[in-house]
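re: the backbone from monday

yeah here it is again, tokenized this time
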């Protein structure tokens, strides 16, 4: 008999992480990740979901795939019971839904037996999402009003199958089975043996809802042969029935302009999301490979003193979104009223930086019309007014080119440089991405600053053969050329949307 729930603050959330697309995580699931002291996650969980975790959250990978278990199920059960019993908030992330052919119910039973608190948080299953992302509805008024879901991977300790293939073969409507690629010949053969029509349309969807999704279409009678010929591997969801014919009309996911293209994003983990999301929305399979991370300046006190005196300047210049974030992080520590910025006017190097300023409900007084680089900003200021004896606070990174200070000082301005942050090499948060790049290759790699170029090269990673290089603009391109790297794609507008547009146009050719 299960013990009464403990009064300990510990709780384990058994969360369905969805089929892969980060956008398909439920709001409840996201909240559980954000609350976690410890994340225990599976092989099929998209690593992008981990970014919702708070700083300092312990991450434990217990990935399980056919023939390769990091921890056995018994060890996982003991682990989550132990962690929860210690009073921790444990979020156990499981691919898809936690109880649909998962082991969520068994894990819940172990937690109940131990007398610790737990919750089951349902997730979107690949049994429905996988076919939908392949343009196949599992039910359809013209084809099927019944859905049968079964597993292709039963408990290996059982002496014989518990599946009644005679009933499955005769079942009306759509049939979907999970985890059955390795047994595809056995499963399709059993269905046909018990009366299913060999000519019934069938599809397999691999890595469903991910950017690397692949779909194989055949019939019940020919699928096993096609799988062998194509070298089609797990993980995949199988769908059988006339609904597969709808794919020709509504295959929306795989028809997007960048589908089939694997694109590497080298920005910081914090910044990568914007570029990654825009590329993923166009169908790209994105590998986030952060080469840099942002850290506080070495002279934090000196930076703080300049921020404290910001109201004394006629202009404040921001040349990056990171600079805006760092400035106002310090500003908020010193002041509790945005009006303390005084009458200083604000100049920004480009739209991304300006957007950050406007998010603070501050107006941007000056921005280049099109050349979103240091030279363009200097030109805009020069045309705007006489700069003789004008006081300017330039909020910058430690490694930034000195173009702004040198040019404006030459025009008579009095420029103080507020070093707001520095970029350092990322050496811990990119190991999984490096492995993917090495094992799977990529079509395009993006660089959004000179620092991403320099730090990527410091990783000593060999670029896959045939990979194309995309640069956000001329300054980044100059750094690439300095190191002997070709520029295949360069943004016409030196912004993230401009870079995405250039990649889309290039691939359209």
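seq for it, each position gets an aa:
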């Amino acid at each position: 008999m299960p013990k009464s729930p403990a009064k300990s603050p510990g709780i384990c959330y058994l969360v369905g992480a969805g089929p892969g697309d980060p956008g398909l995580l439920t709001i409840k699931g996201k909240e559980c990740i954000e609350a976690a002291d410890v994340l225990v996650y599976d092989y099929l969980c998209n690593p992008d979901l981990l970014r919702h975790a708070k700083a300092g959250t312990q991450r434990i990978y217990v990935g399980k795939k056919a023939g390769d278990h990091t921890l056995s199920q018994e060890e996982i059960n003991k682990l989550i019971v132990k962690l929860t019993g210690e009073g921790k908030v444990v979020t156990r992330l499981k691919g898809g839904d936690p109880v649909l052919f998962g082991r969520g119910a068994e894990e819940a039973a172990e937690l109940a037996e131990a007398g610790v608190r737990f919750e089951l948080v349902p997730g979107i299953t690949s049994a429905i999402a996988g076919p939908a992302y392949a343009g196949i509805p599992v039910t359809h008024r013209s084809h099927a009003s019944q859905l049968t879901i079964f597993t292709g991977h039963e408990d290996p300790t059982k002496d014989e199958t518990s599946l009644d293939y005679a009933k499955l073969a005769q079942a009306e409507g759509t049939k979907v089975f999970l985890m059955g690629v390795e047994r595809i010949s056995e499963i399709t053969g059993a269905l046909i043996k018990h009366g299913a029509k060999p000519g019934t349309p069938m599809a397999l969807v691999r890595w469903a809802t991910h950017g690397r999704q692949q779909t194989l279409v055949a019939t019940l009678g020919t699928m096993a042969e096609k799988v062998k010929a194509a070298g089609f591997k797990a993980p995949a969801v199988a769908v059988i029935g006339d609904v597969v014919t709808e794919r020709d009309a509504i295959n929306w996911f795989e028809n997007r302009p960048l589908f089939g293209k694997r694109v590497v994003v080298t920005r910081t983990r914090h910044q990568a999301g914007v570029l990654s999301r825009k590329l993923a929305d166009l169908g790209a399979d994105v590998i986030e490979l952060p080469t840099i991370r942002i850290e506080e300046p070495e002279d934090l006190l000196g930076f703080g003193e300049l921020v404290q005196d910001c109201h004394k300047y006629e202009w404040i210049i921001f040349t990056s979104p990171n600079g805006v974030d760092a400035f106002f992080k310090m500003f908020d520590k010193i002041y509790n009223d945005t009006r303390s910025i005084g009458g200083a006017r604000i100049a920004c190097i480009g739209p991304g930086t300006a957007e950050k300023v406007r998010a603070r409900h501050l107006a941007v007084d000056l921005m280049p019309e099109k050349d979103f680089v240091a030279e363009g900003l200097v030109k805009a200021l020069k045309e705007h007014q006489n700069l003789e004896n004008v006081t300017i606070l330039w909020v910058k990174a430690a490694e930034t080119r000195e173009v702004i200070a040198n040019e404006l000082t030459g025009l008579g301005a009095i420029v103080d440089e507020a070093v707001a942050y520095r970029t350092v090499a990322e050496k811990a948060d990119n190991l999984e991405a490096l492995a993917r790049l090495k094992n799977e290759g990529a079509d395009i790699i993006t660089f959004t600053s000179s620092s991403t170029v320099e730090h990527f090269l410091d990783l000593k990673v060999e670029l896959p053969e045939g990979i194309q290089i995309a640069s956000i603009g001329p300054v980044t391109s100059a750094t690439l050329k300095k190191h002997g790297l070709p520029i295949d794609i360069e943004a016409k507008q030196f912004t993230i949307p401009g870079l995405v547009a250039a990649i889309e146009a290039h691939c359209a050719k």
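The chain has a mean pLDDT of 91. The longest helix spans residues 321-334.
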